[in-house]
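Colleagues,

For the teaching module next term, I've prepared a clean inverse folding example: a structure given as tokens, and then the sequence designed for it. I'd like students to try predicting residues themselves before seeing the answer, so please don't circulate the second half yet.
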């Protein structure tokens, strides 16, 4: 099976997980927001969204590091798997949790604020990166198919983190205007599907191909 075919198959297989995770995340956030919208206390809702984002973002970093490190360890030495865990977490998590939601909101004409946790709240990134890498090293040695389990959790957590970033930093109009529901859904799907698969699948598989050559 060719390298290109493998990546295409993996991206296709994981697309339904992304759709489901995004659908659930939007449903939960919509339900959670209704009491604040009815009462007119939008500012409090923004504060809650911000707090929840800063809870899910570190969890996303941790799950991404576990999944990427565990899968890389199947093909690489521990040292190289750790390096892959770092690179495969820092860049994709930034794309998923900050840049895709920010750019998507700006394209839709929203007044977005760019908040980069790795720079502004490093204590919410680096400790969870280390924990995730250690967890990935342990899990792949002790648990069967641990990379598959961690990738599933990674997708669901990433959906929530990306959506809560939108809610916290400028894109809330979809809660009140049905015309923005599908665009919001599309932004989150892209923000989750591409970076998560890049982190958990494309980078480790590409590395495996390179080491075989």
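(Answer key — instructors only)
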């Amino acid at each position: 099976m060719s390298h290109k075919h493998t990546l295409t198959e993996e991206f296709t297989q994981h697309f339904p997980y992304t759709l489901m995770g995004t659908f659930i995340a939007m449903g939960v956030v919509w339900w959670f927001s209704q009491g604040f919208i009815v009462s007119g206390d939008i500012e409090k809702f923004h504060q809650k969204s911000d707090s929840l984002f800063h809870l899910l973002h570190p969890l996303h970093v941790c799950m991404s590091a576990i999944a990427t490190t565990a899968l890389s360890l199947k093909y690489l030495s521990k040292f190289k798997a750790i390096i892959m865990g770092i690179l495969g977490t820092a860049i994709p998590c930034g794309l998923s949790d900050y840049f895709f939601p920010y750019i998507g909101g700006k394209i839709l004409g929203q007044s977005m604020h760019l908040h980069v946790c790795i720079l502004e709240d490093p204590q919410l990134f680096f400790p969870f990166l280390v924990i995730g890498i250690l967890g990935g090293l342990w899990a792949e040695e002790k648990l069967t198919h641990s990379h598959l389990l961690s990738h599933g959790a990674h997708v669901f957590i990433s959906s929530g983190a990306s959506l809560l970033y939108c809610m916290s930093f400028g894109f809330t109009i979809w809660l009140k205007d049905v015309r923005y529901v599908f665009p919001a859904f599309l932004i989150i799907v892209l923000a989750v599907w591409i970076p998560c698969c890049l982190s958990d699948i494309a980078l480790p598989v590409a590395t495996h191909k390179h080491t075989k050559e």
